[in-house]
Amino acid sequence: ALRGALLEFTVDQETAPSVLAPLGDFFGTAPGLNRFQSLPCGVREDGTSYSHWVMPYRYAATLRIVNHSKQSVTIRGQLVAGAREWTSDSLYFHAKWRGVQNLRTFPHQDWNFLTARGRGRFVGCMLHVTNPVPNWWGEGDEKIYVDNEPFPSHFGTGSEDYFGYAW
Known about the structure:
Elements: E1 5-11, E2 19-22, H1 23-26, E3 36-37, E4 41-43, E5 49-51, E6 61-67, E7 95-96, E8 143-144, E9 154-155, H2 159-162
Parallel strand pairs: 2-7
Antiparallel strand pairs: 1-2, 1-6, 3-4, 4-5, 8-9
């Protein structure tokens, strides 16, 4: 149900949601409710999911949860809203989700999980890998290219370190 119920957050005059993600993935827990705590989001001991992301808008915002699963979903929540001055430095919050099945592992290839244009801040990502090969979970080096760089300005030590799965 957490993968089948989509969170949609649309702001101002935008026609496409600035947030479009399954509930579990938006709260950083997939598959299922996995307890963890971080500043922006987490899942408490009782299964309550929380998100502290600031999601500014200038005029109006619409929050919808659309259930595409065959399971019934009951949701209780609390939304905190307050006045915020909109300035030339204000930015919208975006969160997207993408699922890929049957991704080939050979030949080795980079897998792009984000292409963004315009001014903004990258605050992180969540990755869930379900892999039929028991001895390989999807390791690879994370690379971040900024403004069409020919070589990444961030070339990490591997997804096992970036996503906290290192032994």
